[in-house]
């Protein structure tokens, strides 16, 4: 069998090899030397598109690419208790690189969400709504098998919370689908044992009167002979 364009075949074989690799911890991110981490504090732009005001987002407006779904998504995120903050990926510069047909391309997710669990732990969620426009399977594979493992393998060194990815194909199902995804993430994170930092933070947060003042017979106790 002869293929006119062998590149898709090569890419498919490569993905299959990587998917069966036993040591996923070898996947590590290549950081931008001058700007290793982005921030919503640098978001600035002009648009002629419709916008929707926000409360939980550091960016004051959601830029709408369509007539309805961005607004529905933002409204749902605003009303979801576990969502601490979120941002529509517009003027943010957040993109995930991938290669298709031998050419470098970029995937821009729809929303970035910060979740807060009942144990006050944090997680970041990449949310894609209504599916991908093109290269669907490839983008999905790159995010789950490349980007997420790389970032999560280095998150302790970078001081980052765990990252997750969720895709919602139908905007009408966003509320139950998002709630289910968040519940799964929250249960996974809070099931982990407390770290030393969390224990120290808990002790530091206790009120001063939580600890007893001392023994009631402290004067008599001080006169006892030490046991050696």
Detailed description of the structure:
This protein is α+β, with helices and mostly antiparallel strands and 228 residues long. It has a domain at 49-205. 34% of the residues lie in helices and 18% in strands. The chain contains seven helices and eight strands. It has helices at residues 7-19, 69-79, 136-153, 155-158, 174-190, 196-205, 218-222; strands spanning 51-53, 61-63, 83-88, 96-100, 103-107, 111-116, 122-129, 163-168. Strands 3-6-7-8 form a four-stranded mixed β-sheet. Strands 1-2 form a two-stranded antiparallel sheet. Strand 6 and strand 7 (122-129) form a beta hairpin. It starts with 6 loop residues before the first helix and ends in a 6-residue tail after the last helix.
How would you briefly describe this protein structure?
This protein is an alpha+beta fold. The protein is 34% helix and 18% strand.
Silhouette: globular
Class based on secondary structure composition and strand pairing: alpha+beta
* Mean pLDDT across all amino acids: 82
SSE succession: HEEHEEEEEHHEHHH
Helix fraction?
Answer: 25-40%
Spans of at least 5 consecutive residues with low confidence: none
Q: How many extended strands?
A: 8
Radius of gyration computed on alpha carbons? 24 Å
Give the number of helices.
Answer: 7
**Terminal CA distance:** 87 Å
Strand content: 15-25%
Strand order of the largest sheet: 3-6-7-8
Largest sheet: 4 strands, mixed
């Amino acid at each position: 069998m002869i293929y006119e364009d062998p590149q898709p075949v090569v890419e498919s074989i490569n993905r299959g090899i990587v998917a069966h690799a036993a040591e996923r911890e070898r996947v590590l991110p290549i950081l931008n030397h001058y700007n290793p981490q982005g921030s919503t504090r640098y978001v600035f732009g002009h648009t002629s598109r419709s916008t929707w005001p926000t409360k939980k987002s550091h960016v004051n407006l959601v830029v709408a690419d369509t007539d309805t779904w961005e607004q529905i998504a933002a409204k749902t995120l605003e009303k979801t208790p576990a969502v601490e903050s979120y941002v529509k990926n517009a003027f943010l510069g957040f993109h995930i690189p991938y290669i298709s047909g031998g050419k470098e391309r970029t995937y821009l997710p729809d929303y970035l969400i910060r979740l807060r669990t009942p144990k006050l732990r944090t997680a970041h969620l990449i949310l894609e709504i209504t599916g991908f426009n093109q290269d669907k399977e490839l983008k999905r594979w790159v995010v789950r098998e490349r980007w997420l493992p790389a970032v999560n393998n280095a998150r302790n060194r970078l001081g980052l919370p765990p990252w997750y990815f969720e895709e919602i194909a139908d905007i009408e199902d966003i509320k139950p689908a998002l709630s289910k995804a968040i519940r799964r993430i929250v249960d996974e994170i809070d099931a982990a044992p407390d770290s030393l930092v969390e224990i120290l933070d808990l002790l530091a947060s206790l009120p001063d009167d939580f600890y007893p003042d001392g023994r009631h017979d402290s004067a008599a106790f001080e006169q006892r002979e030490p046991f050696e």
